[in-house]
Amino acid sequence: MKLDVEIICGRAEPRYLLTSLARTKFKASEIHEIPGSDTFNIDDGVNDIRGKIVGNVLEFWIRYKREEKRYEKAILDFCRENSLTLQFNPSKKS
Length: 94
Description:
Blueprint: E1 5-8, H1 14-26, E2 32-33, E3 40-41, E4 49-54, E5 57-62, H2 68-81, E6 85-88
């Protein structure tokens, strides 16, 4: 399930930001590309959240809907702590 929040990387390198988010908010030592997909494991192998780099934007995909608010809060906190722009981009159709 795609989260409705995305990080605009601005001048920062997207992979660097994704790694920093993974380390500070999801206790990952590194990020790892998932073979056969264009996503990254960002929670140290737990595989409950993945990150995706789309140009200069970081998108996020989660396994369980019940964890949506927790992950969105962690991403929002990371953006606040690092003065990053957060974009709301609803993936659900009205």
